[in-house]
Amino acid sequence: MIVAVSVVRNRERLVAELLANRAEKFGVKAIVVPKRGFGYIFVEGSIFAVRELVAGVPHVKRVLREPVSVEEFKRWIHKEPPKLEVGDKVEVISGPFRGFTGKVLSIINDKEVEVELFETEGYKPIRMSRSYLKRVQ
To answer: Above 80 in pLDDT, residue 33?
Structure first.
């Protein structure tokens, strides 16, 4: 089973390395650190083994009570950017323009789009990653 462990944000790799040194002793099969640091790591093993493994390890907050399903694990690991088209209204959910809304002007490649923000003065298209955007109705 896959167990999620909550850790201090941006300390995921450090915690994973500390756990990897002790993992064999507790029967843990794998430790996964998502590319985007969002405060969780995933450990394959029983909940009891994972709790024993993380006991006393710095930067660990808690072990989630319920195991994570394989489908949910895949969603956390492989989060795809939203499908956007020219003319879509979007909200910026990350980065320096967080909270702003705008319109997609052009699609540069499968990772970047050009957006016109409504809350800014003048017309200045901005390039940003699709993962920073959320389509709004």
So the answer is: yes
Q: What CATH number has the domain bearing residue 125?
A: 2.30.30.30
Residue 88, token pair as written in the block:
């879509």
In this prediction, what percent of the chain has a pLDDT beyond 90? Answer: 53
pTM of the model: 0.60
What is the per-residue burial (b if ≥16 Cβ within 10 Å, else e) of 31-41?
bebbeeeeebb
Residue 82 lies in a domain: no
Helices and strands (H and E) in the chain: how many:
3, 9
* CA torsion through residues 129, 130, 133, 137, sign: positive
* Short-list 71, 69, 66, 13, CA closest to 40: 13
The answer to whether residues 31 and 93 belong to one domain is no
* Enclosing domain of residue 47: 2-77
pLDDT value at residue 80: 67
